[in-house]
Amino acid sequence: MQITLIAIGKTDNPELAKLITLYEKRLKHYIKFQFLIIPDIKNSKNLSEAQQKEKEGELILSNIQPADVVTILDEKGKQFSSMEFSQFLQKKMNSGLKNLVLIIGGPYGFSEQVYQRSNGQLSLSKMTFSHQMVRLFLVEQLYRGFTILRNEPYHHQ
């Protein structure tokens, strides 16, 4: 299985980018992982929130294949403990899935078309985080999930 993480816009904070890269490298010891960054929409100040979500949605959907299983990060999504998230990953791998696509939306969320294409929704917390911080939290949780599956000492209960 491959995991593809799609996010809108580059990470502006160099410290965050460095940590994300650290966990990306660690994660690649367990699974094929791709981090796809879709560039910010140009002239977005001239667009309404709905128009920006539509344009971002078109770009997101153009990077998804028909056979991909898509999970979007959404505040209304299912919440997991780290142990439950590792079981979620194991079930996806056991199902013979080729590519699990996780999507972090832009600052206004997702277009209706992206919601319709998704196969599920995941929430990291009831709290709201910046979409840049969520990248770090998600790659760290992916790494943690795989260390749990391998019974490695990273996660403590």
Automatic annotation (TrEMBL):
Function: Specifically methylates the pseudouridine at position 1915 (m3Psi1915) in 23S rRNA.
Family of this protein: Belongs to the RNA methyltransferase RlmH family.
Catalytic activity: pseudouridine(1915) in 23S rRNA + S-adenosyl-L-methionine = N(3)-methylpseudouridine(1915) in 23S rRNA + S-adenosyl-L-homocysteine + H(+)
Binding site for S-adenosyl-L-methionine: L73, G105, L124, S125, K126, M127, T128, F129
Protein localization: Cytoplasm
HAMAP family reported in the protein's UniProt record: 23SrRNA_methyltr_H
Top-level taxon in the UniProt lineage: Bacteria
Subunit and partners: Homodimer.
SUPFAM superfamilies in the record: alpha/beta knot
Main location as per UniProt: cytoplasm
Recorded GO CC terms: cytoplasm
UniProt key word rRNA processing: yes
Pfam family, one: SPOUT_MTase
E.C. code: 2.1.1.177
Top EC class for this record: transferase
Protein's recorded name: Ribosomal RNA large subunit methyltransferase H
GO molecular function annotation: rRNA (pseudouridine-N3-)-methyltransferase activity
Keyword Electron transport: no
